Amino acid sequence: MSDSKPIEALNALEAEALAAAESAPDAEALEAVRVTYLGRSEGRISVILRGLGQLPAEDRPAVGQRANQVKAALAAVLEARAGALSGPAVESGLDLTMPGRPRWQGGLHPITQAIDEIWHIFRDLGFARARGPEADTEWYNFEALNTPLDHPAADEQDTLYLVDSVLLRSHTSPVQMRTMEANEPPIRIIAPGWVYRRDTYDATHTPAFMQIEGLVIDEDITFIDFKATLAEFARRYWGPDTQIRFRPSFFPFTEPSAEVDVKRVIRRPDGTQYETDWLEIMGSGMVDPNVIANAGYDPERYTGWAFGMGPGRIAMLKHGVDDLRTFFENDVRFLGQFAQ
Ligand code: DAH
User: Fold this and answer.
1) How many domains, in total, are found in the chain?
2) Measured from the CA of 285, which atom of ligand 1 is nearest?
3) Has residue 184 been placed in a domain?
4) Same domain, yes or no, for 52 and 169?
5) Residue at 230 is within a domain
6) Which of 110, 159, 184, 213 fits as disulfide partner to 172, beta carbons 3.0 to 4.6 Å?
7) Which of residues 91, 123, 140 is at a domain's end?
8) CA pair distance 279, 270, nearest whole angstrom
9) CATH number at residue 126
10) Does some domain include residue 101?
11) Domain carrying residue 199
C-alpha cells in the first residue's frame, strides 16, 4: 500500500506557497517567496523533488507528479503577481490615487467664434467664403471702389502704406473687386479678414481689426433682397424678435448707402424681458454702378448689394465686453472665459 503522507504534505505546501505568493506586497517579498519554495538548493519543492529517490519505488511517480504540479502552479501565480506589482509607479512609491493635473485645453478666440457663427448663417443662406490679400494696391483698396485717391480715407494719416502704391488694406471691400474679377455672376460671398488703420489704440479702436465683407451680384437684385437677407441673418444670429433698421449714409462704393442697426430683445432668467437700444452693426448699400463697371460687368444688366461689418464689435456686444483691446492682449485668463 502506498503512503499518502507525502501527497498530503504537498497539498498543504501548495496552499501555503500560493497564499504567500498572492499576498506578497512588493517585488522583493515576491522574490523571497520564490526562493523559499523554488530556490534551486534550499527551495522546499526543489528539496522534495531531489529526494524522490529515497521514497519507496511505488510512491515515486505519484509524489513526483504532484510535486511538479505544485511547482507549475506556484510558478504561474508568481508570474501573475509579478505582473500586477510591476507598475513603475508602485515601485517608486507614487500615490496612484493622486488626482492628475488638468490638461491645458485651447479654445477659439471670441472674435473667431463670432466670425464662424456669422459665416455659418450666411453659408446656410447660399453664400460662399472668399478671401483676398492683406497687402493690396491703391487700385483695389480705393480706386476700383469708386474712391478717388484724394478722398480722406486714402490719406496717409489713416492708411498704413507699405511701399509706393501698396498698402495694408483698410477694409475688406477690395475682396469685392478681386472676387468679381475672378468669377462670373451670380456672386454671393462672405469675406472675413484682418484690416489695418492708423488709428489710436483705445477702447473701441485697434490698428488691426477684423471685418466681414458681404457681396451679392446678380440680375434683378434690389434693396428688397438686401433687407430680407439682413433681417433673416439678424433673426438667426440674435433671435426671432430682433428688429433691423436702415439709416441713410454715404460710402463711395455704394449708392444708395445705409447703416444698419439692430434692436434686440433680451430675456432675463426670471422670464421678464427688455429691448436694447438700436446698435449699429454695419455699413452697406447697393453696389455703385461704377464699381460694377470696374469689375468688367455690364451695370445695365447686373446690380447688387454689399456690406462691411465688425465682428469685434459684435463679440463685444454679445459678451458685454467694453474694451476692444482686451480681445487682442491675449491674456488667457480673459480669453479662457469664452473658450468653447
Ligand atoms: N468698407 C467700409 C468700411 O470699412 C464698410 C462698408 C460699407 C462695406 C458699405 C461695404 C459697404 O461693402 O457696402 O467702413
Assistant:
1) 2
2) 13
3) yes
4) no
5) yes
6) 213
7) 91
8) 25
9) 3.30.930.10
10) no
11) 110-338
Q: Are 84 and 152 in a shared domain?
A: no
Amino acid residing at 32: A
Give the residue, out of 136, 145, 151, 171, with the most ligand 1 atoms within 8 A of its beta carbon, to mutate for a pocket test: 171
Residues 26-53: tens digit of each pLDDT = 889 999 999 999 999 889 998 988 888 8
Whether 229 is in the pocket of ligand 1, judged by its Cβ within 6 Å, is no
**Does 34 map to a domain?**
yes
CA of 284 to the centre of ligand 1 (A): 6
Residue 161 has a pLDDT of 94
Q: Please indicate whether residue 107 or residue 253 has the higher confidence score (pLDDT).
A: 253
134 phi/psi in degrees, rounded to 5: -80, -30
- Give residues with Cβ within 8 angstroms of 107, minimum separation 6: 335, 336, 338, 339, 340
Query: Mean per-residue pLDDT for 45-72?
Result: 90
**pLDDT (tens digit, 9 = 90+) per residue, 100-145?**
888 878 889 999 999 999 999 999 999 999 999 999 999 999 999 9
Nearest CA to ligand 1 atom 10: 307
Q: Is ligand 1 within 6 A of the CB of residue 66?
A: no
Tell me if 260 sits within 8 A of 238, measured CB to CB. Answer: no
Cα radius of gyration (the chain)? 40
The mean pLDDT of the chain is 91
> In the numeric block, which cell numbers belong to residue 189?
460671398
The verdict on 329 and 296 lying in the same domain is: yes
* Residue found by looking up cell 517567496 in the block: 33
Phi/psi region, residue 22 (left: phi>0; alpha: psi -120 to 50; beta: rest), is: alpha
Q: Is the pTM of this model over 0.90?
A: no
**174 C-alpha vs ligand 1 centroid, how far in Å?**
10
Instruction: For residue 216, report the distance from its CA to the centre of ligand 1, in Å.
Output: 14
Task: State whether 57 and 144 are in the same domain.
Answer: no
